[in-house]
């Protein structure tokens, strides 16, 4: 066994063992919501089928059939469901298709033209879509298995010699049924492999969140399909835009989704939030200066009282000089998620400075490990400084969470009626789906409705 093979096998095992920072489950209830949109899309695709011209001769009759058009589809018995370990099944049973086409018939010396209305009945279409993770980490339709069958077809002639030509009906409809059978599956293959895959390619894998950070939503493995759900496991890692190749190891708990009651579930681990905090920390966002009107009067008074002796010894003229605080988080904040809720723990370095007019700032120590008396004197500063840390850093975090980040769903598919559950190490958001766009509009990218809202 070669070293290269062993390395490849070890890499595969390590990749497979990587926990997901974000998981999405689409349940059979969500699939029921999607079924109507899928049915409409399939009807539109089949309506655009282009049928070739038919020419032939039967006894004394010579005929030409042109301008074949599908006028109506009635896919009343359509179903969309999961195929375990494969993907999706779109199944149509005992439905009908109405057509019209133009005839030109020559019989001996008689020439006749007119329209023919036909109906295909007992239309059965069975289409299986195999879903995989592509090389870029996107969801993709890998292949499609299609079987289409029309049980019977009927035609009604109009025109002066309509009744005379009735005996041609079975011959013509047999040919038409054969041609229509040959066109259904290629049309659906093209719709899935080209149109639907093009829509899936618009779902972000790596995208910017703001001017500081981006997020990696690549799938870490193939989707897991069961009779009741489609589960997708995403890396769910934020990154600093100035260090896009920097990667974090995920040691967090792997989220677990157990519910099926709602249409969709989103699970986010502590790694998802910690990577966001780390990315903002790397981008230098968690720091600020508090000066002049930004500083609360009671804190300014407490600082002057604490450092009065030091200022007098340094220069009595600085007693009335403005004071400033520089707060900087000195390590990435850490998230802790429990059944009782979520908390963020952070530490910061605080610098106290006197700002004499026209002179460089004078910095004071905020703590001392040399003097027990000095340390005792600083105890009253702990509470207000902790408050200032909350006032400065927490709003940054809140702004991020209020703004939200895009989730890996197609534009036009939105969460509604969300419910959040806290677990040890992760949260699960259950929601129902609302389509602000039809499937056709999502595929073509026509954005005539509201801007995308698929964010958390």
Automatic annotation (TrEMBL):
Domain of life of the native organism: Eukaryota
Cysteine pairings via disulfide bonds: 146-185
Signal peptide: 1-16
Predominant subcellular localization, coarse grouping: secreted
CDD domains: BPI1
Residue ranges constituting the Lipid-binding serum glycoprotein C-terminal domain according to the UniProt record: 258-431
Residues of the Lipid-binding serum glycoprotein N-terminal domain: 25-243
UniProt subcellular location: Secreted
Protein name listed in UniProt: Phospholipid transfer protein
Gene encoding the protein: PLTP
């Amino acid at each position: 066994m070669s070293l290269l093979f062993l390395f490849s096998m070890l890499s595969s095992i390590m990749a497979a063992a990587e926990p997901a920072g974000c998981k999405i489950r689409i349940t059979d209830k969500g699939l029921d919501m999607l079924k109507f949109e899928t049915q409409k899309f399939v009807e539109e695709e089949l309506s655009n089928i282009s049928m070739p011209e038919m020419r032939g001769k039967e006894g004394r009759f010579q005929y030409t059939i042109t301008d074949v058009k599908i006028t109506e589809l009635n896919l009343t018995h359509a179903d969309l469901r999961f195929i375990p370990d494969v993907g999706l099944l779109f199944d149509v049973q005992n439905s009908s298709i109405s057509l019209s086409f133009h005839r030109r018939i020559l019989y001996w010396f008689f020439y006749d033209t007119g329209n023919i209305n036909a109906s295909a009945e007992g239309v059965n279409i069975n289409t299986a879509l195999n879903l995989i993770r592509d090389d870029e980490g996107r969801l993709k339709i890998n292949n499609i298995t299609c079987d289409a069958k029309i049980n019977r077809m009927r035609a009604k002639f109009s025109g002066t010699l309509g009744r005379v030509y009735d005996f041609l009906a079975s011959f013509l409809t047999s040919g038409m049924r054969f041609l229509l059978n040959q066109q259904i599956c290629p049309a659906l293959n093209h719709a899935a492999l080209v149109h639907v895959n093009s829509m899936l390619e618009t779902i972000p894998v790596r995208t910017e969140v703001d001017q500081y950070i981006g997020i990696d939503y690549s799938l870490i493995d193939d989707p897991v399909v069961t009779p009741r759900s489609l589960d997708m496991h995403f890396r769910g890692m934020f990154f600093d835009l100035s260090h896009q190749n920097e990667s974090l190891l995920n040691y967090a708990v792997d989220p677990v989704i157990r519910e099926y009651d709602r249409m969709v579930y989103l699970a986010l681990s502590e790694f998802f939030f910690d990577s966001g905090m780390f990315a903002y920390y790397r981008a230098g966002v968690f720091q600020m200066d508090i000066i002049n009107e930004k500083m609360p009067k009671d804190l300014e008074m407490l600082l002057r009282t604490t450092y009065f002796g030091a200022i007098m010894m340094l220069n009595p003229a600085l007693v009335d000089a403005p004071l400033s605080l520089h707060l900087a988080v000195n390590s990435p904040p850490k998230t802790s998620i429990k059944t009782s809720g979520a908390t963020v723990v952070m530490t910061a370095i605080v610098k106290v400075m006197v700002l004499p007019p026209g002179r460089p700032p004078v910095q004071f120590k905020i703590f001392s490990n040399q003097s027990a008396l000095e340390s005792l004197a600083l105890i009253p500063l702990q509470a207000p400084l902790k408050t200032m840390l909350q006032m400065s850093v927490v709003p940054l975090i809140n702004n991020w969470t209020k703004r939200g980040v895009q989730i890996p769903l197609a534009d036009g598919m939105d969460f509604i009626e969300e419910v959040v559950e806290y677990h040890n190490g992760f949260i699960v958001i259950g929601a129902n789906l609302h389509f602000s766009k039809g499937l056709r509009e999502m595929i073509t990218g026509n954005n005539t409705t509201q801007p995308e809202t698929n964010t958390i």
